Amino acid sequence: MKNDLQTDRACLEKEKGMLVMKKFCRNGIILLLAGMMMLCIIPAQPVMAQEKAYIYMDTLKPVKSGQYTGNEGDSFVYTIGQHQYTRGNTDIYGNSYTHGIEAWIARWNYTPEISWAYSTYNIGNKYKKLEAKLVLIDSYNTTNFDTTLYFYGDGKLLKKYRMTPSKIPFKISVNVAGVKKLKIYVKDNKAVSGGTSFGIVNCKLYKSQAPKKPVITNINKKKGVITGTTSKSVTVYANIGTTTYSAKSDKNGKFKIKTQKIKNGTQIRLYAKNKYKQKSKVNTVVVY
């Protein structure tokens, strides 16, 4: 009798242990599934879009314009396809363009004359070069013209391109580093009749950045040597009193400027310039 009771008790304990194990396993699976669900619903981090290295010229509006007025006076240099007298945005080969500048050079249909137009844009010394393609927009005269496209930066001629039927289309590139106001001027070299529309298409202005503010890492007062870091391949200037010293930074941005002996209390003004004439912020230090 006693043995039977012990056996029954052992069986009950065993069944109880199995129930506990089942419950533990079941809870473990639930926890595991919950963890997996939490992993699945963690929101993805947004990817920051990189800023483009250029802008399209047609996103800017002219600050000044002018044109030949000897005929109807409807010549212009403006965003392609958007002027009231536009000849459209399609070239003589059927290619259409979303971005670009149109230069419509109006002439009397039966009387030869020299016509011209220009527009000036404020680009604010923010860009290093302009790149585009010159095409002929489908218009009246696409076979008999001799015209030049001029680019002026702050009143100075940067580059010019002669345009004749046999030369177009072709690509152009203009250095606009340090330019605040860019003038696009189109003028005939010889008198012809019938207007011509030129497209300066996919016209991009590539951005340039000012150098980083120079940081001094060491000053050897006895030898008169200033070392530090800034942007790579720029010219670093050190103003000490009325004298300016300079040196080029290397490919890693490190520089070493040799000066006169430096006394305690001397003020040094450091700044850097790149090849596009852009200037960094000034770092002013006093030596002790």
TrEMBL record:
Annotated Bacterial Ig domain ranges read 210-287
Task: Give the residues annotated as coiled coil.
Answer: none
Q: Which domain of life is it from?
A: Bacteria
Q: Which UniProt keywords apply?
A: Membrane, Transmembrane, Transmembrane helix
One Pfam family assigned to this protein is NPCBM
Q: Where are the transmembrane segments?
A: 24-44
> Boundaries of each Glycosyl hydrolase family 98 putative carbohydrate-binding module domain copy?
119-192
Asked if the keyword Plastid belongs to this entry, the reply reads no
From the Swiss-Prot or TrEMBL record, give the protein name. Answer: Glycosyl hydrolase family 98 putative carbohydrate-binding module domain-containing protein
Which species is this UniProt entry from?
Roseburia intestinalis
Q: What is the lineage of its organism?
A: Bacteria, Bacillati, Bacillota, Clostridia, Lachnospirales
